[in-house]
């Protein structure tokens, strides 16, 4: 099932570890602190448990949101590269 993992973690080292965990689970980075991908319920729970262990007692806000397939197919994405500006 498609899911979105987003987080706000002030500690740079922990934030990097959380990003590595997301990549380990096959998620794709879509923004600096946002990943998307397909995860089953077991992997969703496992990933969040591992993230919780990495965070420990530090400040953090992490959300894993799963999205129904139909809703995922209807998402709208704008993605473009900035074109060179010539003077």
Explain what the structure shows.
Helix content is 38%, strand content 25%. The protein is an alpha+beta fold and 87 residues long. Strands 2-3-1-4 form a four-stranded antiparallel β-sheet, covered by helices on one side. Helix 1 packs antiparallel against helix 2 (41-55).
Enumerate the strands of the largest sheet in spatial order, edge to edge or round the barrel: 2-3-1-4
Number of helices, counting only DSSP H or I runs of 4 residues or more: 3
- The chain-level mean pLDDT equals 94
Number of strands: 4
What percent strand?
Answer: 25-35%
Q: Catalogue the unreliable spans.
A: none
Shape by Cα distribution: flat
Helix/strand/pairing category: alpha+beta
- Helical residues, percent: 25-40%
Order of H and E elements: EHEEHEH
**What is the rounded distance between the termini?**
47 Å
Major beta-sheet overview: 4 strands, antiparallel
| Rg result | 15 Å
Please write out the topology.
Elements: E1 2-8, H1 12-24, E2 28-31, E3 34-38, H2 41-55, E4 61-66, H3 69-73
Antiparallel strand pairs: 1-3, 1-4, 2-3
Helix pairs in contact: 1-2
Features:
3 helices; 4 strands; 38% helix; flat
Describe the structure concisely for a colleague:
The protein has 87 residues and is an alpha+beta fold.
């Amino acid at each position: 099932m498609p899911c979105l993992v987003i987080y706000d973690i002030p500690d740079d080292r922990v934030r990097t570890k959380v990003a590595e965990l997301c990549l380990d689970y096959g998620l794709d980075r879509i923004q600096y602190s946002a990943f998307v991908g397909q995860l089953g319920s077991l992997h969703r729970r496992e990933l969040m448990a591992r993230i919780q262990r990495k965070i420990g007692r530090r400040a953090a806000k992490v959300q894993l949101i799963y999205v129904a397939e139909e809703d995922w197919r209807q998402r709208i994405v704008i993605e473009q590269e900035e074109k060179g500006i010539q003077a």
